Amino acid sequence: MNGNNNAIRNTLFRVLFIGDTKVGKSSLVNTYFNMDFDPDIFPSYSCDNFTKKINFDNRNYTFKIFDMPGQERFRGLTRIYLRNINIIILIFDMTKKETFLQLDHFLEVILENVNINKVSFILVGNKSDLSDNWEIREKTGKKFAEILKARFFLSSAKIGAKQFQQFLDDFFENYIRIYNDRINNNNHEPRVILLDDREININNNRRSGRCC
Length: 212
Fold this sequence. Notes:
Layout: H1 2-9, E1 12-19, H2 25-34, E2 48-56, E3 59-67, H3 71-82, E4 87-93, H4 97-101, H5 103-113, E5 120-126, H6 138-148, E6 151-154, H7 161-184, E7 194-195, E8 198-199
Parallel strand pairs: 1-3, 1-4, 4-5, 5-6
Antiparallel strand pairs: 2-3, 7-8
Helix pairs in contact: 2-7, 3-5
């Protein structure tokens, strides 16, 4: 009993921010941790990592967050960073349709290297403040999220840092809550999917077709 409690008390979760170059991954990570938009932030050319600690029910949890580089460098780093991953945050630029279509290529790599029954997905449409220039409709993003059984969020690293921080903190706390419920019921480590604040199971099937 004590050993199990200690295991939960010191749990580490791994989170990947994934998306095409210049969709705003690094900006979102920066605004999440610093609540400050930096227009001159450089894109990631290696895999930068950050640490978020959350105290929940008097227990400490660590979320290790990795900011993955874009498509051209992603495949070379895949096996290293996808190992034992818990949460994958897929990001696209609402003003560039191609960054949305590129998600298929990222998912192909993910599905080759990850047991999706142990991974949770979040889909983020970034640069929502530039609504006059959107090339992807909000309902298209929502439909794609439904295919993934993922949580969908419209974000703006420029003006929406507080909203994104609150969304991600709430997601992390819900993840911890459901994780602990499963552990306490002597089940295996769950794949936690949150869609409209409901837990949804997903079977281990690859999706077919492309939502666009």
